[in-house]
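Morning. Coffee machine broken again, so started the prediction first thing and wrote up yesterday's gels while waiting. Chain of 379 residues, entered below exactly as on the submission form.
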Amino acid sequence: MNTITITPKDEIVMRLVHFFITEANYTPIIVNGVKDEVWLENSEAKYKIVRINSNYIHNEEQFRTDLFKIKNVMHQIKRKTVSFTMNTFNIFLDVNENVKLEDEKHIKSIVIHNMEDVEKNKMEKYFPGIENKLLKNTEGLDLIINVTEDINAKTAENNKIYEGTFKPKKIIVTYFLMALCVFIFFLSFIIGKGNLDAYTLYKLGAVSRTAIRNKEIWRLLTGTFLHTGLLHLLVNVYSLCVIGVQLENFVGKKKFLVIYLISAISGSLMSSLFNSGISVGASGAIFGLLGSMLYFGYHYRLYLGNVLRAQIIPIILLNLFIGFTIPGIDNAAHIGGLVGGYLSTMAMGINGKSSKTDEINGYIVLVIYLAFLCIMLFR
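Came back before lunch.
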């Protein structure tokens, strides 16, 4: 009959991995070309990366080589997760006593010889509460079973949140907003008898600083459903379809509608501050959806890092650049919508990612931002 033998190093690794995954919300990372190492990631933690190395470090040169390898992996993860800084907590389990560990910038290295080091000396000040949260009173096969069951339960919980966020859903609000834009365009075309000049659009509810200051507040919203012509309409409806379908699927119908409306109003407020003429179009609200995608993508950057870096950010920067260089584009509305979408998403939160503190801070900043725009507009 085969027996299972657990070495002291195995025990330390299992207890640490159990803590980091089930208590500290870290996620395992697959790193190619490594052996006897565990890599874990939590983009919201002080130490975004925790690395546990069971290999024997026998001299200073090997230690330096190991640090070089860590920096290369950190660089890859930073690129994938679009992170500007990344602190790594580097745990060694087997180091020659003559090797002197030195911290590098953004890399904290410690040696753990036994569980007493974990519980009382070296880990507590970096991860407060770890002593009370470590899995205890289990050894041998029971330890393996308990660690496996708890990690599987945590993984299943995370997978449920992930599946609920990313699985395809029925899209309703985006298509309704697209249809509404088209309906209002043809209605305004009929009312204006084929003429959609500035006067006609103003009468139909375009965004206007003077009119809004005269208490026609409804223009902050109605102007975002008007368009100057068929090409203007088609560009915005297409953009709304491409971005809106994805975002509505990610955040849900109610949140999506709130984000869209706040973005539209935020864009109109900013436009009114900087433009003395009239403004129409859904582009401010659409930029708000991009701002929302930016916030969402950042919090799910372990999965959407490439999309965030290669698509969302370049699209935002390119469109802002076009707005600054081509006359007639209301870039103030774009910027206002972008900020409004980002902050409204922060206020409502991202499933499985946002804490109550994040949401409260989002509400506070959003209210201050909108209040500031209103004060500046109506002063």
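The first strand starts at residue 27 and ends at 29. Going to sketch it on the whiteboard this afternoon.
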